[in-house]
Design a protein that fits this description.
The complex is a heterodimer of chains A (307) and B (324).
Chain A lengths: L1 H16 L3 H11 L1 H18 L1 H4 L21 E2 L5 E2 L10 H37 L1 H15 L3 H12 L3 H27 L3 H8 L4 H12 L1 H24 L11 H12 L5 H28 L6
Antiparallel strand pairs in A: 1-2
Chain B lengths: L1 H28 L3 H5 L6 H10 L6 H13 L13 H36 L4 H15 L2 H15 L12 E3 L2 E3 L4 H34 L2 H8 L4 H39 L4 H11 L2 H29 L10
Antiparallel strand pairs in B: 1-2
Helix pairs in contact in B: 1-12, 5-6, 5-8, 5-10, 5-12, 6-8, 7-8, 7-10, 8-10, 9-10, 10-11, 10-12, 11-12
Classes of the chains: A mainly alpha (307), B mainly alpha (324).
């Protein structure tokens, strides 16, 4: 008996190292330095946004901490309270660094939140279309066509014009303009997958449709969904910033990066660049880091490039 | 072909109808235009007269029917603010927007196609990596922020180019165009660059991935095995096949470029349709909003149809009759 246990040890070690699709995916993802860098940068940004109240030098919403005399200070100058404003201040005397970190918080919440809800809605409808077929399929896909034939920016603009400003409304608008991308993607891969034997097997076992859809079909449609989801988070953040810049997005009391940039617009012509410049850089770094990950994910998960 | 065209036109009509309902009901839900249009000092009788004159006292479905009958006759209502036909108002602004969008598309193809081809043919070279990194930047840069930065650098700091407006215009075909005068062209440069950045990246990436996928195809291997020159393989065999997605997307993008010019026009105070719609949303000028959306929807339907038809010319495998 003891002999067997000794023999088993290397066998166990071998099992741990065996390649599962997930491990292969992880190792392929980290093989790219650029994508890994993107992940690290995004991780830092997310951490900054989450920890905002504890790490910013100033609470930008607390009017008691603001001094209008500190308005439009250049980056690196020292304000009336003895605080150094590394990225300058805006017209209200608000520390730009603090404002940006809080702005990141709102931009990320809206971007990730809307992409998540849109992926739930879109993936469910896409699965339903592929699995249901027939009339269900054509109704859902006509809706997708209708949605995609209309430019996202205009659709979002209209929805916000109807609903009014507000973070919740921005999320609703983004979900409405984004779900179709997920639905189309999931339907495409689900149509292929549903003809596979394992679905047939699941059907023969008389599993409930919901279980087949979400436990059998969905996991196998995940790769393209992950790619689309990553890119859509970046798009959602950019779109929210654009809408806020146009004055139709978040309200002035909860400024996202886009609104911060809009605030600096009028001072730009007089050479006070920092009010718009730094929030833009923060926005750019966020979006680039997500896109770098998404870009590499697409190559890793694209079977057509694996010949 | 005729059957296909007829079916598509019928579909288009249905989409137009559906969109008109959505837009009309949606716009109806926006605030009360009376509050904005009538001075607060106006008495009750005056208010009611104004409401009646604008047709706002009728029930919603009746307003919609009136709108629809008039729309079919080419009358999309009068702007509350300018008291001019909404359609005419938008069409007046259209050349400015078209000029901007076409300029941007032109730049995108001219710059994006060669860069993408290079990046696809030599995917591991330093140049290609730089191009791809640049394209990710082009995708990631928010249009409005790039616009601001362009103004800051080229208009404020360097003072080379004007930052706002269309500049001098010259008449051609009865419309006024900026690109025909030196001053107008100078005004056009910054907005066109701004609007084309995203499209350049798109064309680069489409071309690159198209080239990479096409290079693996058997017919390319065969062409090479046959001893054709690399130039011929690239420009005839590969290039033709990657043109399909590129043409589709550039065509479809013309519509979204026009839509996206909303942002560029706001940044550069370019007096086109996009700026008009933002202004109209801010003052709740319902007829203009509705008319603008209907024109955009119509434009998109036409673009989609044109691209589909072009598709079949470029790729004989696409049979129009087969699929709806």
């Amino acid at each position: 008996m003891s002999d067997v246990t000794v023999n088993e040890v290397p066998v166990v070690a071998k099992v741990v190292k065996e390649e599962t699709p997930f491990r292969r995916f992880v190792s392929e993802f980290f093989a790219s330095k650029i994508a890994t860098g993107g992940l690290i940068v995004f991780g830092i940004i997310a951490l900054l946004a989450i920890l905002a109240p504890w790490i910013t030098p100033q609470n930008p919403y607390d009017l008691a901490q603001l001094d209008i005399m500190d308005g439009r200070l250049e980056p690196g100058s020292v304000g009336g309270s003895g605080m150094t404003h590394w990225l300058g201040t805006d017209d209200q005397g608000r520390d730009m660094l603090s404002g940006i970190i809080y702005g990141l918080r709102i931009s990320l919440t809206v971007g990730v939140g809307s992409a998540f809800i849109a992926s739930l809605v879109g993936a469910s409808l896409g699965l339903l279309a592929a699995y249901g077929g027939g009339r269900t399929d054509s109704v859902i896909m006509r809706l997708v066509d209708l949605q995609l034939s209309f430019p996202t920016i205009l659709a979002a603009l209209m929805i916000l014009a109807f609903l009014g400003k507000g973070i919740g409304n921005v999320v609703i608008a983004l979900v409405i303009v984004e779900w179709a991308y997920y639905a189309r993607t999931v339907r495409g891969s689900a149509l292929v997958e549903r003809r596979r034997e394992y679905i047939e097997a699941a059907q023969c076992l008389a599993l409930p449709t919901r279980r087949i859809l979400f436990r059998h079909l969905l996991p196998n449609c995940l790769p393209p969904l992950i790619v689309v989801g990553t890119i859509q988070v970046a798009r959602a953040i950019a779109l929210e910033a654009t809408l806020s810049f146009l004055g139709l997005g978040v309200p002035i009391t909860e400024p996202s990066l886009g609104l911060l940039i809009a605030n600096g617009y009028e001072y730009m012509l007089s050479g006070k660049y920092w009010i718009s410049f730094y929030p833009g850089i923060a926005l750019l770094v966020t979006i680039v880091s997500i896109n770098l990950m998404g870009d590499h994910l697409r190559d890793v998960l694209n079977p057509r490039l694996k010949k | 072909m005729t059957v296909y065209l007829l079916r598509r036109l019928l579909q288009a009509l249905l989409v137009m109808l559906a969109m008109s309902v959505i837009v009309f009901v949606g716009v109806y839900a926006i605030g009360d235009p009376v509050e904005i249009l009538i001075s607060p000092d106006a008495d009750q009788i005056e208010r009611e007269r104004a409401i009646k004159a604008l047709g706002l006292d009728l029930p919603l479905w009746q307003q919609y029917l009136t709108f629809l009958t008039r729309a079919v006759q080419g009358d999309l209502g009068r702007s509350f603010v300018f008291n001019e036909p909404a359609l005419q108002l938008i069409l007046q602004k259209m050349p400015a927007t078209l000029e901007l969008a076409v300029g941007a598309t032109f730049m995108a193809v001219l710059i994006g196609l060669p860069l993408g081809l290079y990046a696809g043919l030599k995917p591991d070279s330093v140049g290609s990596k730089a191009i791809m990194a640049g394209s990710i930047l082009g995708f990631s840069l928010p249009t409005f922020w790039v616009g601001l930065m362009l103004i800051m650098v080229f208009a404020v700091q360097l003072g080379w180019l004007p930052s706002t407006g269309r500049g001098e215009t010259a008449e051609f075909l009865g419309l006024r165009w900026s690109f025909l005068t030196r001053d107008g062209l100078a005004h056009l440069i910054l907005p066109a660059i701004n609007l084309s950045l995203f499209k350049i990246s798109l064309v680069v990436r489409l071309t690159r991935s198209g080239v990479r996928e096409t290079m693996l195809m058997d017919y390319v291997k065969f062409a090479r095995a046959k001893g054709l020159s690399p130039a011929r393989v690239t420009y005839v065999h590969v290039f033709k096949n990657i043109l399909i997605p590129v043409v589709t997307v550039v065509g479809l993008e013309l519509g979204s470029t026009i839509a996206f010019s909303v942002v560029t026009e706001s940044v550069f105070a370019w007096p086109g349709m996009g700026k008009l719609i933002i202004d109209s949303i801010n003052v709740l000028d319902r007829p203009v909003i509705v008319a603008y959306l209907m024109i955009i929807v119509l434009m998109f339907i036409i673009i989609n149809l044109a691209v589909d038809l072009l598709y079949s010319t470029l790729d004989p495998r696409v049979r129009l009759e087969g699929k709806s």
